[in-house]
């Protein structure tokens, strides 16, 4: 069977990795009801023919029929003549990167949920797939079960995309929501996110915003035609001196409470937009948004991606952003797209260069900050004059440059985090 043959014979699938998502994908591919549902919608259901895992004998709570080969020889499996599509759900850069590369170069299609790999090596893998004429699809890499990549490429093709922004990490949103709503502490909620299978094996990727940075890089590639260097993306809010800790690791329960008292929520928001100079800007950092806004009211593990485009205006994609079953939906959709002969996630878009993103803090913002040290003290006039809204410890400023707000806060407390306020969000 030529893997590029479209829908004529069942696609023969090799699944790499039986973690949270891999297991859920295998369960669906083997499920009779799922298979007949797919057939009823006019698509030949793909066949799971092999599973590649590092330790094939380890019990994983999944019954594999004897016809499904289990192997630890992953290098051989990805170039096996009996395989049309490799589904890579191992995660991480290596060995996933070389396995995906080998599969593409040898004419196999690849479906992956590996955002780190795409964000760091996407332009190389894209070239490999283009050269080999095979499909590389990765809907599962962004926002779990929420379809967002294919709609950006296909359904919004008639638009000029001006901005993409959203909440794309379920773990951190779950942590911030639980801290804000129940006053629970950070460590306690993080272990719960790990138990539920939302967090990555090494949760620092989630809480330090690497995971969201990778996802934003993928969104930017499809929305703006460039692969941004993931390491060039800002992942921390500014502080009075230098930056706050990365991602949500410096967000304090007190700040969430004070934000709520002013009608605001602090959310880890990923944003990419075209700057006035024509260069792309992109960052992932905790920002303050109105609590009643779509971003502010997105809680728990839910993801929300908003695309602001001309002529459509603002459209939003919302749903379960993590978890095995939800994310398996995106992997399965990609397999079915390949079965229909639809090609790669980037569709007809031209190849994209890799670019470094300039920092995006230059523009004027309103800022939100909490100055606990002011309790009971008289608010210094230099602060009260810039306040749009304030309570005893928390302030929202009028739009002003970062340097100006830093200068005013330096005498108060150099460790204050200065959260950008996304007033329009
Ligand atoms: N760790 C990720 C999250 C999983 O929490 O969003 C989905 O990519």
What can you tell me about this protein's structure?
There is one protein chain. The chain has 425 residues and is α/β, with parallel strands linked by helices. It is 32% helix and 22% strand. The chain is built from 14 helices and 17 strands. The protein has helices at 20-30, 32-40, 74-77, 96-105, 115-132, 149-155, 170-182, 186-195, 204-207, 210-224, 253-261, 324-339, 381-384, 402-409, and strands spanning 12-16, 47-52, 69-71, 85-88, 109-112, 136-137, 160-167, 227-228, 264-274, 280-290, 302-310, 313-320, 354-355, 366-370, 387-390, 394-397, 419-422. The strands form three sheets. It has a nine-stranded mixed beta sheet. Strands 3-2-1-4-5-6 form a six-stranded parallel beta sheet, sandwiched between helices. Helix 7 packs across helix 8 (186-195). It binds L-homoserine. L-homoserine is lined by residues 144, 169-171, 198-200, 206, 211, 321-322.
SSE layout and pairing:
Blueprint: E1 12-16, H1 20-30, H2 32-40, E2 47-52, E3 69-71, H3 74-77, E4 85-88, H4 96-105, E5 109-112, H5 115-132, E6 136-137, H6 149-155, E7 160-167, H7 170-182, H8 186-195, H9 204-207, H10 210-224, E8 227-228, H11 253-261, E9 264-274, E10 280-290, E11 302-310, E12 313-320, H12 324-339, E13 354-355, E14 366-370, H13 381-384, E15 387-390, E16 394-397, H14 402-409, E17 419-422
Parallel strand pairs: 1-2, 1-4, 2-3, 4-5, 5-6, 8-13, 10-17
Antiparallel strand pairs: 7-9, 7-11, 9-10, 11-12, 14-16, 14-17, 15-16
Helix pairs in contact: 1-12, 4-5, 5-10, 7-8
Bound molecules: L-homoserine.
């Amino acid at each position: 069977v030529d893997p590029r043959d479209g829908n004529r014979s069942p696609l023969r699938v090799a699944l790499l990795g039986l973690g949270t998502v891999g297991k859920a994908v295998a369960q669906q591919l083997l499920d009779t009801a799922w298979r007949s549902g797919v057939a009823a919608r006019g698509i030949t259901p793909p066949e799971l023919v092999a599973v590649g895992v590092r330790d094939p004998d380890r019990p994983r709570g999944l019954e594999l029929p004897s016809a499904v080969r289990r192997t630890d020889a992953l290098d051989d499996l990805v170039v096996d003549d009996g395989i049309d599509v490799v589904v890579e759900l191992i995660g991480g850069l290596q060995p996933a990167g070389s396995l995906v590369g080998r599969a593409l170069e040898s004419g196999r299609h690849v479906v992956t949920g590996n955002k780190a790999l795409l964000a760091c090596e996407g332009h190389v893998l894209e070239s490999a797939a283009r050269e080999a004429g095979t499909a590389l699809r990765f809907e599962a890499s962004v926002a779990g079960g929420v379809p967002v990549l294919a709609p950006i490429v296909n359904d919004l093709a008639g638009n000029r995309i001006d901005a993409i922004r959203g909440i794309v990490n379920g773990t951190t949103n779950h942590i911030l929501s639980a801290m804000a709503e129940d006053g629970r502490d950070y460590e306690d909620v993080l272990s719960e996110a790990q138990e539920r299978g939302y967090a990555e094996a090494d949760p620092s990727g989630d809480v330090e915003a690497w995971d969201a940075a990778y996802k934003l890089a993928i969104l930017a590639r499809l929305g703006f035609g460039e692969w941004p260097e993931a390491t060039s993306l800002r992942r921390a809010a500014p502080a009075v001196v230098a930056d706050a800790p990365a991602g949500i690791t410096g967000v304090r329960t007190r700040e969430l409470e004070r934000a709520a008292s002013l009608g605001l929520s602090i959310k880890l928001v990923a944003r990419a937009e075209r700057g006035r100079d024509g260069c792309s800007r992109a960052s992932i950092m905790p920002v303050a948004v109105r609590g009643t806004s779509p971003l502010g009211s997105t809680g728990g593990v839910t993801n929300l991606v908003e695309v602001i485009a001309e002529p459509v205006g603002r459209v939003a994609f919302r749903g379960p952003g993590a978890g095995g079953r939800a994310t398996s939906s995106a992997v399965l959709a990609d397999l079915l797209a390949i079965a229909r002969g639809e090609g790669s996630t980037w569709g007809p878009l031209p190849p994209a260069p890799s670019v470094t993103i300039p920092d995006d803090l230059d523009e004027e913002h309103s800022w939100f900050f909490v100055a606990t040290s002011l309790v009971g003290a008289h608010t210094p006039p230099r602060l009260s004059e810039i306040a749009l809204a304030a309570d005893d410890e928390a302030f929202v400023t009028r739009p002003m440059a970062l340097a100006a707000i830093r200068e005013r806060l330096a005498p108060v407390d150099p460790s204050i985090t200065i959260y950008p306020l996304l007033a329009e969000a």
